[in-house]
Amino acid sequence: MVKKKILIFIISYKASFRLLDVYKKIPFKKLKQYKISVLFSDDASKDDTIYFARKIKQLNKNKKIIVKENKINLGYGGNIKTCLNFSLKKRIDYAIM
Prior knowledge:
By secondary structure, this protein is α/β, with parallel strands linked by helices. A 4-stranded parallel beta sheet has the order 3-2-1-4, sandwiched between helices. It has helices at residues 16-24, 49-59, 75-89, and strands at residues 5-12, 35-42, 64-69, 94-96. The radius of gyration is 13 Å and the shape is globular. The two termini are 26 Å apart.
């Protein structure tokens, strides 16, 4: 049986202090029957948000984590839209924010 693919996307803007807490709340054990990917999508923050997203990726090499940095601030809705478009291009079955 082929596992369904889930993309859990976490959008951020100047939210370095919040990323790890949000990531830790993902119930990976309950989602074992799915192929899980996590997308950190930063909306052109000028702080250290990207650094922390990359650090989380580095510390969790056993998980599929993607870090995407928007070159310009797309706004809340624009950032969500880019994540949903990403999931469509990758043929993800379910996208969760």
